[in-house]
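Deliverable D5.2: sample structural annotation.
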Amino acid sequence: MPAAAGGLLLYEFGTAEVGLAAAGYAARAQDASTAFTNPAGMTRLDGTQVLAGGQLMRLNTRFSVGEGTTPALGSGDGGRVFGSNGVVPGGGVFVTHSVSSDLKLGFAATGNFGSILDYDTSWVGRYRAQEATLLGVSFVPSVAYRLNEHLSLGAGINVMYGVMNQKVAVNNIVPGAADGSFEFDDTAWGMGGNLGLLYAWSPTSRVGVTWTSEVKLDFKTQPQFSGLGPVLSTLLRSRGLLDAQLNAGVRVPQQVMASGYTQIDERWAVMGNVGWQQWSRFGEVEIGVDIGNNPAGLTTAIPFKDTWHVAAGAQYQLSGPWKLNFGMAYDSGFQSGSRVTPLLPLNSAWRFGLGGEQQLSPTTKWGIAGSVIYGGTLNVESTSALPPALGGRGNLVGEYRNTAAVTLSVYGNWAL
C-alpha cells in the first residue's frame, strides 16, 4: 500500500471511510469497522456484525528528471513508482459481537500502514532507492462497555506484523562495470494499544475520541550485497560494513483523532475530524553506499515532523434504501518543506471522497466508494560529495509532478 495520509498511515482500508474522506472516523460507528476506528462505538451495534471490504488504489507518481541531476546517471524516470505499475490492493475484515446490551467484543484485521515502492532498474536515482517495502498489518482484538446512556469506553490491543525490504544499486566505480546491489530484508512483530471514548449527548449527536499508541518494529539483520567489484568489496570489508548487522527499526506513530457526528434531520447528517500523528519519532532511514562519505555507515537518517489532519463530510439519505456519502480532508506533510526523499515520494495530501451505500435487508448492506487523493508536486534535491565516476552516488534533482491517487472500494456489512 502507498501512504497517503500525513505520512504512511492510510484512512482507506476497504470501508465507507473511502467515500467520506474519513470524516466522522471516531464518531460514526455505523458498521463493524468501528472495531478498528473507535472500539467504543461497538456499543451502538447489536448482535454479531461482520464487515469485509476490498479496494484498489491507482497512483500516478513518476519522477521528472531535473537539470541538476548528474548526467552520468542517465535519464530513466523510474516509471510509476508505487505498487505494480501504480496499482496497490488493500482491504480488511472487521467483527463485532454483543455479549450483552452494554458489553461488546470486536476484532479487526487490516493493513493501514506502509508503502510499496518499485522503480525501474536503470532510473537515475537507483543509488538512493530501487525497491522499498514497508508494511504493517494489524490484528486488533477489542472490547467496549457502555457506562450509561451517554458514555461508552473501548480498548484494543494492536498486534502488528511488519515487513521491511529496501534494495539499492551500488556503484562499482570501475568504468563500464555493471552495478552491484545492496539489500536489507527483515520482518518483525510489534504491539501497541488503542483506546476509545464515545459520548452521545442526544440520540442524534455524538463525539468520539481515539488514541492509538506507538508501535515499534525492530528490523535488524545482516544486509546482503551482490555483484560487488573487488575494489569496493575490499573497502567495505576494511570498514567492517560488509558483514555488519544493520538496525533499521521504525516506530509506527501514535495518533489522536477527535470526531463529531450530528443527524440534522431524516435525510442529512454531518461529521468531521481533527487529528494529530507523531511522525517526528518515525525513524525510517535510507540505505546506500557512497564512497564520497568515506563510507562510515550504510544508512542515512531522514528528518520527519508531526502532522495534523482535518476532515468534513456528510451523508444524505436518498429515496429508497440508498445513502450518499461524501467528504474532504487535508493532512499536513511529514517531510520538511517541499523536498522529499525518493524513498518516500509523498508528503501533504488533500482527499475528496464520494460513495453510496444500499440497505438490502434489515441485516445486510453493501457500499461502493471512491476517492481522489492529491499530493501536489514534490521536489527532490539529493547531493553527493563525489560524482559516480569517483564512487559517489551523484546528484539527484527533479520532481514528482502533480502526484495523485484514485481509490475504489467495495464492502459489505452483515448482521448475523
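Annotation notes: The longest helix spans residues 230-238. The longest strand covers residues 180-202.
The annotation will be released with the project's public dataset once the embargo ends.
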